[in-house]
Amino acid sequence: MSWRDLRCGEVRSEHVGRRLKLAGWAARRRDHGGLVFIDLRDHTGICQLVVNPERAPEAAAAAHETRAEFVLLAEGEVSRRAPDAVNAKLATGEFELQVDRLEIESRSEPLPFQLDDEGVDESLRLRYRYLDLRRERMQGNLRLAATVISAIRRYMDAQGFVDVWTPNLTKATPEGARDFVVPVRLQPGRFFALPQSPQLFKQILMVAGLDRYYQIATCFRDEDLRADRGFEFRQLDVELAFPTREQVLEVIEGAVVASFEALGREPPQRPFHRLSWHEAAARFGSDKPDLRFELEIQDMTAITRSSEFGVFSGASTVRCLTVPQELSRSELAELESFARGWGAKGLAYLVFADDGQVRSPIAKHLSTAELDAVRAPPGSTVLFGADEPRVVERVLGALRLHLGKRLELVDEGRDEFLWVTEFPLFEWNDEEGRWQAAHHLFTGLEPGHEHLLEGDLGSILSQAYDLVWNGWELGSGSIRIHRRDLQARVFKAIGLSAEEAEERFGFLLEVMGMGAPPHGGFALGLDRFLALLAGQPNIREVTAFPKAASGSEPMTGAPTQVSAEQLAELGIRVIPPAQ
């Protein structure tokens, strides 16, 4: 017995006059008092069933029982629809199946929402995810993801990379996000950690002589969830031995292009744009700038050193944005409130009106040279940031993105890929009062900066690089440290004692002492990449069974409590949270 001869969306003119079996879900039923019409759906589309009680009385009885999402088996003859009944919106819209046999294979309870409803609350969608995934959009998203991942695998295989699976139960190395930990029954009080990435294993594979590694890796991070972040995520994990930076970037660009081509889309031009971290921050106020619109930041620090306007002369950094619109007082007040939310103390401005006048309370404090330096076309507004560099970059970067969307400056038809390079090796953690790795502790230093490890840590540049697509960070990578002595100096620079470094990373230091080749790699965040390819607002739309924003899994009810016996077996006691 076969359940079907064709899928529902595959019926075409060559099947007219043939007897076929179709199977699927009842998407819609229309009872016209005699004839019953049923739209039978599967992932390929819809075929209209026509049930005539005079032709097939038993089938008509089943049709009258049928409700939304019943699973049906239909057998009959394919015929052409009447010209006035053709549905040009469907690939099968010219045809229908005249049913002789209709069987209800599975019944459905009344639905919590209709599958063609728009605006269904996300919590309800996640609670009934198996229904949500029947929607055409969700089916399309998951199949797009499968197509892209298959294309990436083919590309990586063709480039000589070896797909290696690395452990999901590994050693906790506290640095960065929180680990998910797993108790070990046979060793009470000891825990594995789920990997935040296969970082150390892929470096060790280079020491093992594998030369070119990749993996579609599942990673875990215990951090707050948001649109582009989840507890579990997938990444294209890549590592090469003896690479230059450009060789790593070329490999990742090739994987991106292969993904576009697999979807039949025009791929981005190669090589992708390059910007140093310093240039990106100075020109766009961000280490992941959206290049689909101009609105660049200009530096006004030098010309304002002797300004009569104390806010400028007293600030270590003064920069500005020229907005191509004459903003009103209310709009400026709204933008000032926005800027304060990002850490600004205020928002100085100059409005260059259409009549040639300059409107601003600070204009009288600025010299002719200062005004000439920022003079903009009539009908423009210049917004200033004056503070420490990091504050100015953060505020003007946020304003740039806000105004780009609000004024519809973003060219939604463009795709802009960008490599950001030469990141700082370390960043200062204000809360903990210490230096920490900007990427991770195994990132290579810019050649010639090694002597700064015992001096000015803030001026050390790294060999790290990020890939950005339309303002979204897709992933990070670097050329790694491969010398044991240099890795030990990096550990010491962030305050790890020799004993602490040995406890946390002794196995890695041992590996590095056994002939580690120069190596480097990258990790591309697949869920984020897929969401952007699918035109979706968050990664949950391209994930089959995502967690809710609360961290729970509404469909199964996870996470759940475990029994006292299980806890006792693991040597764990749960301490109730403080009231």
What does this structure look like?
The chain is an alpha+beta fold. The chain has three domains: 8-106, Nucleic acid-binding proteins (OB fold (Dihydrolipoamide Acetyltransferase, E2P), Beta Barrel); 139-274 and 418-542, BirA Bifunctional Protein, domain 2, CATH 3.30.930; 293-410, 2-Layer Sandwich (Gyrase A, domain 2), CATH 3.30.1360.30. It is 27% helix and 24% strand. It is built from 15 helices and 22 strands. The protein has helices spanning 57-65, 122-127, 129-132, 136-158, 199-207, 245-262, 277-284, 310-313, 329-341, 368-374, 389-406, 484-493, 498-512, 526-533, 564-570; strands at residues 19-31, 36-42, 45-51, 71-80, 95-106, 162-163, 181-183, 191-193, 212-220, 232-241, 273-276, 297-299, 317-323, 349-352, 358-359, 380-387, 417-421, 426-429, 434-437, 464-469, 472-479, 519-525. It has an eight-stranded mixed beta sheet, with helices on both faces. Strands 1-2-3-5-4 form a five-stranded mixed β-barrel. β7 and β8 (191-193) form a beta hairpin. α12 packs antiparallel against α13. The longest helix has 23 residues, at 136-158. It is globular.
